[in-house]
Amino acid sequence: MDPLMITVAPVGAEVTRSQTPYIPLTPEEIAEECYRAWNEGASIAHLHARNPDGSPTQDPAVYSRIIELVRDKTDLIIQISTGGAVGMTVEERVAPVSLKPEMATLTCGTVNFGDGIFVNSLSDMELFARTIREHGVKPEFELFDVGMMENQRRLAAGKLVEMPGHFDFVMGVPGGISGDPRNLMHFVSILPEDGSTWSVAGIGRHELPLGAMAIVLGGHVRVGFEDNIYYSRGVLAKSNAELVARMARLARELGRNVASPQEARRVLGLSA
Predict the structure, then answer these.
(1) Which residue, 21, 65, 93, 243, has fewest beta-carbon neighbours within 10 Å?
(2) Per the omega criterion (within 30 degrees of 0), is the bond before 164 cis?
(3) Which CATH number fits the domain 6-268, given the four candidates 2.60.40.1590, 3.90.1150.10, 3.40.50.300, 3.20.20.70?
(4) Are 1 and 259 in contact (CB under 8 A)?
(5) What Cα–Cα distance (Å) separates residue 30 from each residue in 45, 65, 144?
(6) Coil, helix or strand for 234?
(7) Which of 126, 267, 102, 111 is nearest to 174 (CA)?
């Protein structure tokens, strides 16, 4: 197996200070959380951005500041979100790709997202794919349900994305595929047989068991406050680094090495 790539998703677009006082909001706080996670074994930083009032933003200037601070402290692979927040325009969401990070997410379909609808039409996906390719960025294909694999295949067939690719199975969002372990096995079974890699982002209580499955199945894992704010039932995690450290510790107990950012670049086919 390749060494385990651990992605840290430190903030997301939905979690607020009323839910956890430990959520980072400013560029400085987000960078500090990435630094602490990097020290514990994270190799990829999945970034969202916030305004001073805590609301989500896709402003490239805010992303630029976060990226600058993270790169000052670490050699993490920078992956920006083009998901933004429910209700944002496609133009807003894709804007930070112009900063040319190493990676950017590309969500492969529309999904009910709690009380909202996360819209990704075919024309939206094609725009994201073209913009990501034009800026020399590697996409991470985000799948919130099984049917999204067919949309990804359509993008690949149209030569809008290069294969093999890297997939992230987001499981447990209300309205998307559940965190049932059988669903992860099904996702893995329909992965393109071309050397593509995959990770899993288990939402809430699904983070730990699905991460453990990914370790033994040869996949990779995403953890962090975007997906889960608890360390155990009813106990808030005090930092993203705690969640990274636990996954790294579990991997070592199971006999799998944890990837450094440079090793992760090799696995993903990124330039050093």
Answers:
(1) 21
(2) yes
(3) 3.20.20.70
(4) no
(5) 10, 10, 25
(6) coil
(7) 111
SS3 content of the chain, % helix, strand, coil (to 5): 40, 20, 40
Question: Token pair of 188, please?
Answer: 């893995």
8 A C-beta contact, residue 221 and residue 247: yes
Evaluate the CA torsion angle 149, 96, 86, 24 in order and state its sign: positive
Enumerate residues 6+ apart whose C-beta is below 8 A from 76. Answer: 34, 38, 42, 43, 44, 45, 70, 261
DSSP per-residue codes, 45-65: EEE-EE-TTS-EE--HHHHHH
The answer to whether 67 and 101 have CB atoms below 8 angstroms apart is yes
Query: What confidence tens digit (pLDDT) does each residue in 77-134 have?
Result: 999 999 999 999 999 999 999 999 999 999 999 999 988 999 999 999 999 999 999 9
